Amino acid sequence: TLLKQKCQPESVDSVELLGQFKEFMIRYNRSYSSQGEADRRLLIFHDNLKTAEKLQALDQGTAEYGVTKFSDLTEEEFRSLYLNPLLNQQNLQRAMKPAAMPREPAPPSWDWREHGAVSPVKNQGMCGSCWAFSVTGNIEGQWFVKTGQLVSLSEQELVDCDTLDQACGGGLPSNAYEAIEKLGGLETETDYSYTGKKQSCDFTNDKVTAYINSSVELSKDENEIAAWLAENGPVSVALNAFAMQFYRKGISHPLKIFCNPWMIDHAVLLVGYGEREGKPFWAIKNSWGEDYGEQGYYYLYRGSGLCGINKMCSSAVVN
Question: Is-catalytic flag, 48?
C-alpha cells in the first residue's frame, strides 16, 4: 500500500510520522473506511503538520501549533464542515444601529468568565452553525448582565427556525438577532437541544426564556471594543480562522498572509482580554468543544485588527 511505500522503516521521519498519526487516531477516535482512505488521510495529516510547522516558525506570538482534532482534514474540508463562508458576503449584512460609546476607558484586563456571564464551551459539530453559537453566547451574557441569571440558550432553534440564515450552510449574526426578535426569543438548550443538523422548526412561544429588544454594531477600534465589552458583556465577533485549524495553545499572532482580515469565515465570542508575558490578547470562546485549543478557547493577539477580529463586532440589546 501507499502507506508502506511512503513509510519504509529506514526513514526515521516516516516512522515518526506513522507514530504521530496512530496517536492522533487513538486520541480522536478515528477509523477509516478502507486502507486507501487511511493512506489518503495520512498524506493530508503530513501536509497539515508541515503547515503547522510553517505557522509555528513565523508566529509572532506565543502560540503552539501542531496536531489537533482537525489534522486529517484538507483545508477545503475543514472550511466546508466547520466554517461559514457567508460571513464574507458584505452585501448580505443587515444594517445595525451603532452601539453607544463606552462611558469609561477600558480597564487593563477583563474576563466575563470570572463574573459569571459565560456558559460552558459548546460544540457545533460538523455543521457551519458558528454564527448561532456566537449569537447565543452574546445573548446569554446580555441576559446575565440584565437579570443576574446565566441560562444556556438554544442554537438549534436558530438552525431550525431562522429563515434569514442557512442553518449548517452558514449565517450572519446581524440576521440572527432579527430572527430572534421576530420569533419572540430563545428557548433554553435543555428545552430545544442541539442536534447539529437542520430539522423542522419546533419553537414554542411558551418556552421562551430570554428575549432581546434590538441589536447594535460596535466600533472597529479595539480599545473601544475592549471598553464596551468590559462595561456591557461578551461580544459576538468574526475572524479569519485559517490558523485555528492547527492551534493548540498560547497567544496566536499569525502573519497577515495566513490570516487575511478581509476573508472572515468564523463567528466566535469575545469574553475578555488582557496580557500574558507582555503580549496583549483577546480571550475567544469557540464552539468546537472543550478538546480544542485551551479548554475550548482561542487566544489571539490584540491591537492590530489581526485576522479581521475587529470588523464584525455586534451585540444584542436587552432592555
Answer: no
Predicted pLDDT at 12: 62
Does residue 307 contact residue 266 with C-beta atoms inside 8 Å?
no
Beta strands at 251-252 and 266-276: parallel, antiparallel or unpaired: unpaired
Q: Which residue has the higher pLDDT, 11 or 268?
A: 268
Rounded CA-CA distance 251/281 in Å is 7
91 is an active site residue: no
Which residue of the set 84, 175, 240, 286 is catalytic?
286
What angle is formed at CA 316 by the lines to CA 313 and CA 88, rounded to 5 degrees?
A: 35
pLDDT of 89 reads 80
Active-site residue, 240 included:
no
Query: What is the domain partition of the chain in residue ranges?
Result: 2-61, 75-317
Q: At what angle do helices 35-58 and 12-27 cross, to 10 degrees?
A: 100
Q: Note whether 98 and 262 are within 8 A (CB).
A: no
Per the CB < 8 A criterion, the answer to whether 247 and 293 are in contact is yes
Which listed residue (130, 161, 168, 307) is catalytic? 130
**Which CATH number does 75-317 carry?**
3.90.70.10
Calculate the CA dihedral of residues 239, 240, 246, 251 and round it to 10 degrees: -50
pLDDT digits over 243-258, tens only? 999 999 999 999 999 9
Contacts with 39 (C-beta within 8 Å, 6 or more apart), sequence order: 1, 2, 3, 6
Cα separation, 138 vs 117, in Å, equals: 9
On average, the pLDDT of the chain sits at 95
What's the mean pLDDT in 275-302? 98
* Selection from 35, 69, 215, 75 nearest residue 139 by Cα: 215
What residues have CB less than 8 Å from 148, skipping those under 6 apart?
A: none
State how far the Cα of 167 lies from the Cα of 129, in Å rounded to an integer: 6
Q: Cell digits for 152?
A: 444556556
pLDDT digits (tens, 9 = 90+) for 62-116: 999 999 999 999 999 999 999 998 998 866 777 899 999 999 999 999 999 999 9
Which of 175, 232, 266, 310 is labelled catalytic? Answer: 266
Q: Residue 6 carries which side chain, given as an amino acid letter?
A: K
